[in-house]
């Protein structure tokens, strides 16, 4: 009986070992995890900067990658970080042009980090697969104005599977997203040479699906207030549009998204529960997707980002909208980048 038990134990051990050996780096069914920034601090003061950059190695071949997820840990033990709800985002650099592409945007919670989230903030960045391969430069930014700053760790999961389309490309249409106060001034005249919200876009002829990917968040407490003392552009609910050839084609409602239900619910003290206009402290700023009609493929059309009419009476500062819009194209045949002029 003793020999039989020993044999069974040996067989089970052998089976487990074989399965582990099969899970090699070349296993197409394995999620590839890439750790990038590791407890990097950004701050204003103490010889630190509001942003940090780094170069990291991603998989070279993404043919068998279905989705790419980015996870951002905002680390703040013992309330030793910047206590305010700060604008923050993360970028990847396009190797061909040297342009920084905004992958995702989030707002820091008051006083705490996002430790209540197992892996931190999650952002689907599959749309940027054409630049997230091989040696890639990343940048993380926070609009912090003190030396306590914020500390981050960032990692990516390259999840296995068949992509929805074999080839894709992404290019920016507009990016006024360096910080909240570098966004487009709202409710007042602005220099159109600095903030050009009108573009001409050409989608490749062999495109099978195309869409806009937009992130927008408002900042400031400018007057006149909306009902309930809601100043613009942080608190005033608005609906903005993407115009195609002059027609309001897509709507972006900047309204309540459920701040009080935020899983990062330990922001004390902090005014985190009231609804902002389309964002919340301690959450990722939502991405807005708009599909482009197929009859637009292979042609040039006019794009304009159009803000809902409102006039700032200059009674309480300025209002701003930080906005980025990308155009994404996909096909099962090799595809060129869209052209944006």
From TrEMBL:
<dbReference type="InterPro" id="IPR014784">
    <property type="entry name" value="Cu2_ascorb_mOase-like_C"/>
</dbReference>
<dbReference type="Pfam" id="PF09113">
    <property type="entry name" value="N-glycanase_C"/>
</dbReference>
<protein>
    <submittedName>
        <fullName>Peptide-N-glycosidase F-related protein</fullName>
    </submittedName>
</protein>
<dbReference type="InterPro" id="IPR008977">
    <property type="entry name" value="PHM/PNGase_F_dom_sf"/>
</dbReference>
<dbReference type="InterPro" id="IPR015197">
    <property type="entry name" value="PngaseF_C"/>
</dbReference>
<feature type="domain" description="Peptide-N-glycosidase F C-terminal">
    <location>
        <begin position="186"/>
        <end position="326"/>
    </location>
</feature>
<feature type="domain" description="Peptide-N-glycosidase F N-terminal">
    <location>
        <begin position="75"/>
        <end position="157"/>
    </location>
</feature>
<dbReference type="InterPro" id="IPR053251">
    <property type="entry name" value="N-glycanase"/>
</dbReference>
<dbReference type="InterPro" id="IPR015196">
    <property type="entry name" value="PngaseF_N"/>
</dbReference>
<dbReference type="Pfam" id="PF09112">
    <property type="entry name" value="N-glycanase_N"/>
</dbReference>
<keyword id="KW-1015">Disulfide bond</keyword>
